[in-house]
Structures are given as structure tokens and as C-alpha cells.
Design brief:
Layout (H helix, E strand, L loop, with lengths): L2 H24 L17 E6 L4 H16 L3 E6 L4 H13 L4 E4 L4 H13 L4 E4 L13 E5 L1 H13 L7 E5 L7 H13 L5 E4 L7 H14 L3 E6 L2 H13 L8 E6 L2 H9 L4 E4 L2 H16 L10 E3 L3 E2 L17 H9 L11
Parallel strand pairs: 1-2, 1-3, 3-4, 4-5, 5-11, 6-7, 6-8, 8-9, 9-10
Antiparallel strand pairs: 10-12
Length: 352
């Protein structure tokens, strides 16, 4: 072979290799963009959604973004706060042979039934907010959710810093029964009692904005000297604010603290109605759960904290502009990829 032909032949090989590398890079597994997280390509994950309120909607959207970032498909079943519907949804997902289930149960009772249905079908489950002391740690493959007691402590510290001994405070609680609402309140009250701040009442809103409005109206009539309100999420806080407005109160007359850190909460902070909000980003919680399911499905032997806590922080008017990207309630490609790499609050490394 002549030198000229040899050079041509070598050039052809180099070009062919370059093309092959380019094609391989372009068709790389979606998991490459998510670091060490295994791919979910060809896998279907079911999301059992509690209801359609904003928190659960953003949780579902975060799950969809995370599953799709890993190449998988998400199917959604809304339980609409009905225990029978939740169990029926899980049965449907099992019958369709999904590869994994993201479970946001309504209560401890439905959690147990739903998780056992999936376990009997050898379908891994990642659960949100279902773990409590005494729970069977092996009921699901992964437990997640923010540390409810710690959230209450942060809110309690914020409220205590704004009030004095003898002041009256009330809470408008969420849906009792799963455990986290009770822990919010315990943590909150743990910071008030030492300062002599009195919790006079704590009715429940059942996570309904309208019920929160009604309960707050009743509280303001019964306790005209009320100095603080702890409404258990941003959505019900809107109801509490409506009650304050209707009672002729101005921003700051009654101190308000809550949890979630949603765009709604941010707006209320900017307006002066809300003094503190603990970030509890549902897309981040979903990313942690999706990552765990991907690891379990891939057969990786992981040791997860039980539960694996979502990172939280206190949000006030002073730090609104400096919050980390993963605290967003509106998942983007960038925030989703960062969330998939974020360890739990009690986890040093998300990949060991």
C-alpha cells in the first residue's frame, strides 16, 4: 500500500472513530446527566398522589421531572384523600406491573395495606412521611420526608422570638393521623412552653384552605388577644390570612409562622403577613425518593437512614433572595439534576 493510500486510510479511521464517539455521546443514557444515579430507561414508576392541593401537585411534578431525567415514565393515581381510592390505586398499579411505586399515603392504615400489596408483588416502594416510631422499617424500601419535629422546632423558635411571656398562640393543624402533623405541633410547642407562651387551641383544617379560614375566624372571636397563629402549611395559611383581613387586622398584628416554603409562602412573607416559613420542597423530596427507587431497581446495595430526611431551612424576608436552588417548588431541569445529587439531611453520601 502506498504512503498516500495509507494516509487516506488512516484519516478515514480517525473520522469514523470521531463519528462513533459523537454518536455514543449523543445517545448516552439519561442517567449520565444525573451523575451516579442508575438509569430508569424502560421503567415505569407509579406515583400515588394524596390529593390535588399544591403541595401534592408539586410533589408529583418533581417526581415526574426526576423519573424523566433518568429516562423513565411516571404514571399518576390521585387518591383524593379517600382511603379506599388509595388502596384501589395501588392495586391498579400492581396489576399493571409497574417497576416501582412512590407512595404518599393518607394514613398509617392505608400505608400498611398499600405497602403490603406492593411487597407481595415484589414491587419496591418509596414512601413519603409514613414512618413513625414503632413502624416496621422493612415495610418499604425507602422512607423519606422532612423531619417534622425539627420543622416544628424551627417554627417554634421563630414564633418565640417574636412574642413574650403570657402571650396567647393557637395552631390550625393539618390532617391528623399519619404522624407528621402531630410532630409539627410537638416541636412547635417545645419552644413556646419554656418562655411561658400559651397555646390556647389547636383545631384541624384537614389541609383545607376554607376550613383553615373558618377555624381561624373562630379562634379570633374566642381569643381576641391572640398574638400568634401556627398554620400547618402555606395553603392553609392563606385561609388564616383571610381571617385576619376580615377581622380588620394588619400585617404583623398577629404573628404567623408556617411550613412549606412555596411561592405562596414567599408572597405572604413579602407582604408582611407571614414572619417565617420552613422550607419543605416537594420536588426535592420526590427526587430523593426517585433516586432511591432507581438504586433499588438497579440492585444496588444501599444503606438508607430511616427515614432519610429532606434538608430544611428557615425562610424569612431577610434570606428570600439567597435560598438554594433545590428549595424550589417549581422543578426545572437544573434543579432536578441537583436534587438527584443531594444527600438527605442525615446522609453523608447519597451513593453509599
Amino acid at each position: 500500500m502506498s504512503r498516500k493510500l495509507t494516509r487516506v486510510f488512516s484519516l478515514v479511521i480517525v473520522v469514523a472513530l470521531a463519528v462513533a464517539i459523537f454518536v455514543a455521546a449523543g445517545s448516552a443514557s439519561p442517567s449520565r446527566t444525573a451523575g451516579q444515579v442508575p438509569s430508569l430507561k424502560g421503567k415505569t414508576i407509579a406515583y400515588i398522589q394524596t390529593s390535588s392541593v399544591e403541595y401534592f401537585l408539586r410533589s408529583m411534578q418533581g417526581a415526574k421531572a426526576a423519573v424523566e431525567a433518568l429516562g423513565g415514565k411516571l404514571v399518576v393515581y390521585n387518591s383524593n384523600y379517600d382511603p379506599a381510592t388509595e388502596v384501589a390505586n395501588v392495586r391498579t398499579a400492581v396489576a399493571k406491573h409497574v417497576d416501582g411505586i412512590l407512595l404518599f399515603s393518607i394514613s398509617q392504615g392505608t400505608l400498611t395495606t398499600s405497602a403490603r400489596l406492593a411487597r407481595d408483588a415484589n414491587i419496591p416502594v418509596a414512601d413519603y412521611y409514613g414512618y413513625s416510631k414503632g413502624s416496621d422499617k422493612n415495610l418499604v424500601g425507602f422512607w423519606t420526608g422532612a423531619h417534622a419535629y425539627d420543622i416544628g422546632v424551627l417554627d417554634g423558635k421563630a414564633m418565640a422570638s417574636l412574642l413574650k411571656k403570657g402571650d396567647q398562640v393557637a395552631a390550625v393543624q393539618g390532617q391528623l393521623g399519619r404522624g407528621e402533623v402531630e410532630d409539627y405541633e410537638r416541636g412547635f410547642e417545645s419552644q413556646l412552653k419554656p418562655k411561658g407562651i400559651v397555646v390556647v387551641a389547636k383545631p384541624t383544617s384537614h389541609w383545607s384552605r376554607q376550613q383553615a379560614l373558618a377555624r381561624a375566624q373562630e379562634l379570633l372571636v374566642k381569643y381576641p388577644n391572640l398574638k400568634g397563629l401556627y398554620c400547618h402549611n402555606d395553603d392553609t395559611t392563606v385561609g388564616c390570612v383571610q381571617a385576619l383581613k376580615q377581622a380588620g387586622k394588619k400585617p404583623g398584628d398577629v404573628k404567623l409562622v408556617t411550613l412549606n416554603g412555596s411561592p405562596t409562602g414567599m408572597t405572604l412573607i413579602k407582604e408582611g403577613w407571614l414572619q417565617a416559613d420552613v422550607t419543605q420542597p416537594p420536588p426535592l423530596e420526590s427526587a430523593l425518593a426517585v433516586r432511591a427507587l432507581a438504586q433499588i431497581i438497579a440492585g444496588q446495595k444501599m444503606t438508607y437512614p430511616v427515614p432519610c430526611y429532606t434538608p430544611i431551612s428557615l425562610m424569612t424576608k431577610a434570606n428570600l433572595a439567597t435560598l438554594p436552588e433545590v428549595t424550589t417548588w417549581l422543578p426545572t431541569k437544573s434543579s432536578t439534576l441537583k436534587a438527584l445529587q443531594t444527600p438527605c439531611a442525615n446522609q453523608k453520601n447519597a451513593f453509599k
